[in-house]
């Protein structure tokens, strides 16, 4: 029974993949600005991990030109994204994955 449950859980995880890859990377690959460049903009505006994650989460839940870290030209060309359809857990997972991928803290030597 435990073996069957374990196989089911692993299959489910593998079939859905990573929330960040499936929802963020998929769309951002079509934009002229990479996710890494966007991360740098968040870093300049919000500084630390807690503030960056809160800023991203707030923007994804309540997208607005006024709180976007993107340039006026970028917003004029691409507009503002639609409100996220991710639930709270998925949103947190995606933001954590994004942070882990591009954070500079602990990577500088």
- Biggest sheet architecture: none
Measured as a percent range, the helix fraction is 55-70%
Number of domains: 1
Unreliable stretches (pLDDT < 50, length at least 5) are: 12-16
Task: List the total number of helices.
Answer: 6
Shape: globular
Rg (C-alpha, Å): 16 Å
Tell me the distance between the termini.
Answer: 48 Å
Proportion of residues in β-strands: under 5%
- Please write the string of helix (H) and strand (E) elements: HHHHHH
Q: Tally of extended strands?
A: 0
In round numbers, the mean pLDDT is: 85
- Structural class of the secondary structure composition? mainly alpha
Q: Can you walk me through this structure?
A:
- With 109 residues, the protein is mainly alpha-helical.
- It has one domain (19-102).
- Helices cover 66% and strands 0% of the residues.
- It has 6 helices and no strands.
- The chain has helices at 2-16, 19-28, 35-46, 49-61, 72-78, 88-102.
- The relative contact order is 0.14.
- The model is unreliable at 12-16 (pLDDT under 50).
- It comes from uncultured Sulfurovum sp.
- This is Cytochrome c domain-containing protein.
